[in-house]
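User: RagB/SusD family nutrient uptake outer membrane protein, Dyadobacter luticola:
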Amino acid sequence: MKNIQHLLFRTFLLVSVIAAASCSEDFLERPPVDSIVDAGFYQTDDQVLASTALLYSKVWFDYNDKASYNLGDFRAGTAFSAYNDRGNVLFNTTGNTPENGSAWRSFFIVVGQSNLAISNINQYAGAGVSPTVKKMAIAEARFMRAVAYRSLVMNWGAVPVIENNLELLSDTSVTRNTPESVWKFLTSEMRQVAEDLPETPLRPGRVTRWSAEGMLARFYLTRAGVESGGSGPRNQTFLDSAKYYSERVITQSGLSLLKNYGDLFLFPYDNNSESLFSLQWVYSPGSWGTQNSTPAYLAYSPDIANGDGWGGDKGATWWMISQYEGIKATATGLQGRTVDQRLKATFMLPGASYPEITQTIPGGEQRLVYPFNGTDNNFVAIKKYLTGKAKDVGGLSASQNYGNDTYMMRLAEMYLVYAEAVLGNNASTNDATALKYFNLVHMRAGLPIFEGPLTFDVIFKERLVEFAMEGMAWYDLVSLHYYNAAKAYSILNSQDRGLFFAAPDHFPNPTSWTFTKTSWATTERTIDANSGNFLLPIPSAELSQAPNLQKPAVDYYAK
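Assistant: Predicted structure for RagB/SusD family nutrient uptake outer membrane protein:
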């Protein structure tokens, strides 16, 4: 925000929110001269809560902007860009790939600002601040820091754990910490956070005990495989913990699934009954960093946007389309239709109608009907998170400036975490509760009841179609890689990420589609995922400034 001056400094040591893109290089070496707000600000409950508000938006901006889908979906193979961001699509992410650097920087901005918030609240909170609010605000900051570290350790492996930036001003010995010790720190942190957060939000969109317990379910499900050396089995104690926390959230949080899947992404959907944790973006003319910019890069055309709409070469991969029930392989490609409502809510097929979005057409406007263009190549464009023109959202949007929130965790995930935790190291399960929870997600999408048995492949596929374009698929593959690296590579290397043509049986309002691979696009259809390129390389700029990041990792011991 332009009215708050922040300094950018070395991201792995001291990190602050960027106030302007033109910060000069000498800012990189200086300690912070201020934090999110002035120290004298922490005198009332409202002021303390305001001091942590930017932890829900500004600090995540560089990740949410483009890196979230570049890493979470492009690398995972659920979506692709035909002409841009090719390093991530082709699994050739390097130390100089822009989204690699922006994600690393954003996560350490979250860590740095969370640390500063904790320090400032402890040091400056006045007598007018209630113990309840003080405890909650510190817990919010610890929550954000842990969530950021989860992304750091899963993308880059060994990373330095920093709990107090100010202690590092003269410390040149900081090195990376082992993934096992980072995960131990994360679960320990989140357990304490769960104790300190309230069961109901003090302000709309603020995290609660159930947000933290949901993260614990997610953390423990992943941590169960961390020490498996890439070839299993998973730790049963941690699987049991994932089951325990997911069931608590399901049965005690008071949250519920929305009846219709598509409603999750229809304006205004913010902070609905299914949201456990969302980034809180605000349409804010004249400011930068607190708004949601991602729709600008995903919308397939300016025809449905606000002077942006630069996603014309982005869409579902061939592999992703094949995951939807009813889309069948044929001798020449794929063909069919699906009753799974998640396809239409996530990707646009030619002829599909979206009455909530205005489309500019020659001579006027209409309710959006996704066009049918091309002769041998087109795109199954991205729909999820697109809310249309300003007129479609009460005037609350402009170019690169949208107010709709970004889900970081939904209740649906808890149902699938429970099912996978019950499955555990078994080949299959017919556990009645696991099937019940799985089917609540599965049938909400319009699909018939799944009779069982549940297997890893069944649950993994369900997660793919449920959370596609929510930045989740890559982390599901990393979780799998911890205990079954060979299967993670096999999934990735079997994907087709190349060009294809989607043709409706009639236009508009088709009843089925035929998909044919573009005959002349024979290269760059597959990738070679392996132990040498699975994790992201630490950004080159960070290595040049912090050479200790190249040293062997050591275990981290919380202070």
